[in-house]
Design a protein that fits this description.
By secondary structure, the chain is an alpha/beta fold. The chain is built from 13 helices and 14 strands. The model has no long low-confidence stretch (mean pLDDT 94).
């Protein structure tokens, strides 16, 4: 990964009291603790071809995000979304696109006293970097980092990986970890993931089927991450007719699975799902969509582009001690 800075922002990284490098270091620690994800180091460099106050975030040499900030000012955001009645330069917060202002320190103190959110330029960058990493964890988990994670396991678990009855155990581990991270499921419990893979590969070598078994074994962790403040897991369910149609659409022959549903019906399902999801999205709430185990991966694929923040879980992933709260039904 690279963070490329325009000339006007270089001081944020190389002046004696620069805090940007330490904030990025803390970010790596955060991802290790929350997701078990070995976030790669971020190389900071300058580029005179960039606009003076701009920065870009690159993954594998490709720009994936850009922003424009003021190194010597503070950003003011109204968390309520109302217009800001303060003197300053109108802008947009680069991560979420919120209306904001760049102001000097005196106005920033005034804004904070009025209850506005005040953010320093280094935090604007690290917030943007955080979201970029979350969106790209799967791509950032290379074969090398997967091997390193395996080598950090206890010897018994390393042997369990090496004994997986597949041509390349490390590649299968990488594939499963990538799929988990793609859906923002933490991989910090790697020993349990390896146990689940060893269990699954007795019957199948298909990565998709191995993944579903891993998710079932991680049910407690998955449900804990989805629970609300009252201890319930809020879910959106399918109507009986949609449930039956998805069961019918999944054709199983041995280890092979195919999904047969007309494009028209897929589009109708996606539209109905979006209507329910958007009821909660405006409040930054993302209840999980619960479906039958055979259809889970297909439903996830349908919603990945239109609502990537919506978790899709199967009823086989609901831990026995978890209480569900149905908040909506698709097609109901």
């Amino acid at each position: 990964m690279r963070l490329v800075l325009g000339e006007g922002l270089v001081a944020l990284a190389n002046r004696p009291d620069a805090v940007l490098p330490s904030k990025i270091k803390s970010l790596r620690k955060h991802f290790a603790e929350e997701f078990g994800f070995p976030m790669p180091s971020v190389r900071i460099k300058d580029d005179v071809s960039l606009p003076i106050n701009s920065y870009s975030i690159q993954i594998h040499g490709v720009d994936v995000a850009k922003g424009d900030i003021r190194a010597n000012q503070m950003m003011v955001i109204n968390p309520e979304g109302a217009p800001l009645q303060l003197p300053g330069e109108v802008t947009r917060e680069p991560t979420f696109g919120l209306d904001a202002l760049w102001v000097d320190s005196k106005v920033a103190d005034q804004a904070e006293a009025q209850g506005y959110t005040v953010v320093d330029p280094e935090s604007v960058i690290t917030t943007h970097l955080t979201e970029v990493v979350k969106e790209n964890m799967s791509e950032l988990l290379t074969y090398g980092s997967a091997k390193e994670a395996i080598e950090g396991l206890d010897r018994n678990y390393q042997k369990l990986v090496n004994d997986l009855p597949v041509p390349s155990p490390a590649i299968l581990v990488q594939q499963v970890l990538q799929e988990l991270l793609l859906e923002r499921v933490s991989i910090r419990n790697l020993p349990l993931i390896v146990e689940a893979m060893a269990e699954a590969t007795r019957q199948t070598s298909k990565p998709a089927l191995v993944l579903e078994n891993v998710r079932r074994r991680l049910s407690s962790q998955i449900c804990q991450g989805l629970s609300d403040g009252q201890g319930f897991v809020p879910v959106i369910t399918l109507s009986p007719s949609w449930e039956a149609e998805f069961i019918e659409a999944v054709k199983i022959v041995g280890e092979d699975r195919t999904f047969v549903m007309s494009p028209k019906r897929v589009q109708e399902f996606v539209l109905q799902a979006r209507q329910q999801i958007q009821r909660f999205a405006s409040e930054d709430s993302w209840p999980a969509l619960m479906v039958n185990p055979e259809a889970r991966s297909y439903v996830r694929s349908m919603l990945e582009r239109v609502s990537p923040m919506t978790p899709v879980i199967s009823n086989a992933e609901i831990h026995r001690k978890v209480s569900l709260r149905t908040v909506a039904t698709i097609g109901g």
